[in-house]
Specification:
seven-stranded parallel beta sheet; 30% strand; 20 strands; alpha/beta; nine-stranded mixed beta sheet; binds NADP nicotinamide-adenine-dinucleotide phosphate
Length: 394
């Protein structure tokens, strides 16, 4: 039975709390966030829904001494970082100082530079190893489950995987002309950046949304899918041996792209400070204030998500193509957790990652990505915990 500290009471944090409360692996849960009011809301919901008590605390996760003090007080077996990618390094550092296991769902990102890199998190490997603690990086859906799907394909279907396409479709409709399904700042920074894919040992850069293909997503249908850079590719090229190409595609509707282009053209996606009526503001952060809070979208969202991987390669001398995917229904996830499917598909794997660590199914000293562990217990847990998956030979 584990004592856990969850940091970040946002859209994904709610799902993590709901799922951990229902799993017998975790017997003591503390939810901490920048604002105590965000935690108190989920504390009340959990009491009303499950008649379970969780502790709450206020913490600024940019402040290492404050994090260390909180961890020393709560004495958790592990910390689940469900705040923002900006806080990855401070929370990792506090975990190191207190010798506490760590998990997150997104790659570190510097607030002033919209780029993802594992370099700074991987640099903790030796120090975590020496301290006898583990960090599990990217235990969401993508990154996260997509990495586990690749490891599962490698283990059960191929001698060598040659190509991987990660295919992320959200066909949910929330009825707003424009909104993002998770933190708007993180989301818009990701999709307005240049695209990148990896082929024959090198990265190839593309203009934003330059490469498009149409994919027929099971239970959804054909959708325009655009090539983006996505962080799990950086670890997968290291760990899937023999890989020749990896790409990531995400679906976007016409309306989303038109809004994004207009916002970009007028400078609203800027991440540098501008002077506005004597005040310094960051346009992207101001836009976040104007847009609907993703945590409130659940109630209005209808439709499904479908995220998976298509791997091609060789098995017993034969060419083979495998598609592994999950379909998640926004209305069903709302019923279960008061959250839309994007938060749900991230929060459930975060809980499962923590469960794998606390049940010692995935436990090692150092810093690890998801595909470095045996995929089987994780895949089994996905089916039990609400994210059923399918395998198709194409
Ligand atoms: N891997 C995946 O598949 C995937 C998919 C989607 C999202 N994600 C990741 O999941 C994470 C959470 O996303 P989300 O949609 O839940 O975002 P969100 O709704 O904006 O929630 C983030 C929460 O973090 C808290 N926070 C922000 N700065 C903080 C600080 N300095 N100290 C303490 N708490 C702080 C905020 O707290 P307050 O409310 O208290 O102010 C907020 O509630 C992000 O890292 C995102 O990139 C991963």
């Amino acid at each position: 039975m584990a004592n856990i500290l969850i940091i970040g009471a946002g859209g994904v944090g709610r799902v993590v709390v709901y799922k951990c409360v229902q799993d017998p692996t975790f017997d003591k849960i503390t939810l901490a966030s920048r604002r105590l009011s965000s935690c108190a809301r989920y504390q009340e919901e959990v009491k009303a829904r499950y008649d379970k008590d969780i502790d709450i605390a206020e913490v600024d996760a940019d402040d290492i001494p404050a994090l260390v003090a909180l961890i020393q007080k709560v004495k958790p077996d592990m910390v689940l970082n469900i705040a923002l990618p900006y806080q990855d390094l401070t929370i990792m550092e506090a975990c190191l100082q207190t010798k506490t296991h760590y998990l997150d769902t997104a790659n570190y990102e510097h607030p002033d530079a919209a780029k993802f890199e594992y370099k700074e998190q991987w640099a903790y490997h030796d120090r975590y190893k020496d301290a006898g603690i583990m960090a599990l990086l990217g235990s969401g859906f993508d990154p996260g489950v997509t990495n586990v799907f690749c490891a599962y394909a490698q283990k059960h279907y191929f001698d060598t995987i040659e190509t991987i396409d990660i295919l992320d479709c959200n066909a949910g409709d929330h009825g707003y002309p424009f909104a993002t399904n998770f933190n708007p700042e993180i989301n818009l920074r990701e999709v307005s950046s240049k695209g990148r894919y990896w082929e024959e040992g090198k990265w190839i850069e593309t203009e934003p949304m330059e490469i498009k293909m149409v994919w027929d997503y099971p239970e959804i249908g054909k959708k325009d899918s655009y090539l983006l850079y996505h962080e799990e590719m950086e670890s997968l090229i290291k760990h899937i041996k023999g890989l020749k190409r990896i790409r990531f595609f995400m679906t976007f509707g016409e309306s989303y792209l038109t809004h994004m282009k207009c916002l970009e053209n007028v400078g609203m996606l800027g991440i540098e400070e501008v002077e506005h009526m004597g005040q310094k503001i960051i346009p992207m952060q101001f836009l976040k204030t104007l847009l609907p809070d993703p945590a409130t979208l659940g109630e209005r969202t209808k439709g499904k998500t479908n995220i998976g991987i298509v791997a091609t390669g060789i098995k017993d001398g034969q060419k083979k193509t495998i598609y592994i995917y999950n379909i998640c229904d926004h209305e069903k996830t709302y019923k279960e957790t008061l959250s839309q499917a994007v938060s749900y598909t991230t929060g459930v794997p975060a809980m499962i990652g923590a469960k794998m660590m606390m049940q010692q199914k995935w436990l090692n000293d150092g810093v690890f990505n998801m595909e470095q562990f045996d995929p089987d217990p994780f895949m089994e847990a996905l089916n039990q915990d609400g994210l059923t998956w399918f395998v198709k030979e194409l």
